[in-house]
Amino acid sequence: MLCPSTTDPALARQWLSWTAAGVEGLCLKRLEESYRGGVRSWRKYKVRVTTEAVIGAVTGSLAAPRTLLPGRYDRAGRLRYVGRSTTLSGAAGRAVADQLAPPRGAHPWTGWTFSAGWERRAPSMPSWCSRMS
User: Cα–chain-centroid distance for residue 57?
Assistant: First the structure.
């Protein structure tokens, strides 16, 4: 797919606000430079959107998590699944493992099935995603 390009910094900054439409960031290159396979001279600027969340589950084990499955509380006080992290390196998994603990009491996600492709989600997910603040 062809992507728009510009030399106008104001327009590029405007594109960075399109994260809701799927824009992850910008690729930057010199005007005289063309794409050369295997050569990494272009730069990437990724938009980072942050928010607070609770680690509701992990893949792997608590001692060596591979990915984190965060949740946020909705207005009714229910912990809702909101996504997953990228795969953690061994060092990052060990670093976060010290901060993890098993749930106290019944876990709110008991009975959920998370498939490898993450395509199966709780039926209510789309409605509460849009209401999160």
Answer: 15
Q: Which residues contact 95 (CB under 8 A, 6 or more apart)?
A: none
The pTM of this model reads 0.54
**Token digits for 108?**
């709110």
50: Cα within 13 Å, side-chain hemisphere: 2
Helix residue ranges, H only, the chain: 9-15, 90-97, 125-129
**DSSP code per residue over 53-81:** -EEEEEEE-SSSEEEEEEEEE-TTS-EEE
Closest by alpha carbon to 44, among 32, 28, 23, 33? 28
Give phi and psi for 84, each to the nearest 5.
-145, 160
Asked whether the beta carbons of 72 and 82 are under 8 A apart, the reply is yes
| Phi, psi dihedrals of residue 131, rounded to the nearest 5° | -95, -10
Beta-bridged to residue 59, according to DSSP, are 67
- Identify which of 56, 51, 50, 45 has the alpha carbon closest to the alpha carbon of residue 78: 56
**What would the pLDDT profile of 109-133 be if each residue is shown by its tens digit?**
877 766 555 444 444 333 333 333 3
